[in-house]
Amino acid sequence: MNTFFRPKRSANTPPRRAPISAPIYAVCEGLFLGGITAIFDRSYPGIAIQAVSLTFAVMFVMLLAYKSGIIRATRGFKLGVIAATGGIALVYLVNMVMSLFFHTQMSFLYSSTPVGIGISLFIVVVAALNLIIDFDMIENAARVGAPKYMEWYGAFGLMVTLIWLYLEILRFCPHRTDNQLQYFGPPRSQGREGRRVVPVEGQDWKQGRDSPNGPPSEPAVRAPRSATRQPRRRVA
């Protein structure tokens, strides 16, 4: 492990450029995430706070699981997570090519069906497990006394994983919201807006709040039937 973190590298190798590339990447990625989050939050109000909260909650849970030894970064664990991450990257690449050249996409990646939700949840789990590999790399680098630039390199890797996890959670939350709307209908707070009141047959309605021009609609008081009934004429 010591030979891994203390190789003879030139000044142009990626880890040595991390103190420069990491802040630039953070600024550019922050602008990109801000735009994406604004688009999602406009369609699903409050989803940004949910995604950020869930991202940091998952990070702290994975850190606790790693430090307590519940999840260990063994060789087999790393190979499994890296293989799953590579498979996900390959699926995204194929979907991007299909979108650019064939104007179609893999619908199961974006659908709110149980299959689509399950796939999104699986990708979130894989992204979260990548945090274990980042924690292990940072801990091993600190144990063997890695060079100073490796701190930036470890922070850069952790930041990339967190951004990926945040984007997957941001993409997963609309699936859950759409699924709730499909089975349970819209929230009660949104039910009054845009509701059109249809008068009951044979009943007059006053101008009210539910109508387009005024306060809540109330049924007009109808005169008793006896008062409106015409007297019968007697036939001699």
Number of strands: 0
- Could you say how many structural domains there are in total? 2
Unreliable parts: 1-12, 179-200, 202-214
Gross morphology is elongated
Relative helix content: 55-70%
Q: H/E order of the elements?
A: HHHHHHH
Straight-line distance between termini: 121 Å
User: Please, what is the average pLDDT?
Assistant: 76
Main sheet?
Answer: none
**Rg, Å, rounded:** 30 Å
Q: With helices defined by DSSP (H or I, 4 residues minimum), what is the helix count?
A: 7
- Find the structural class using helix and strand composition: mainly alpha
Strand content: under 5%
Write the layout of secondary structure elements.
Blueprint: H1 2-5, H2 14-43, H3 47-67, H4 75-101, H5 114-143, H6 149-184, H7 225-228
Helix pairs in contact: 2-6, 3-5, 3-6, 4-5, 5-6
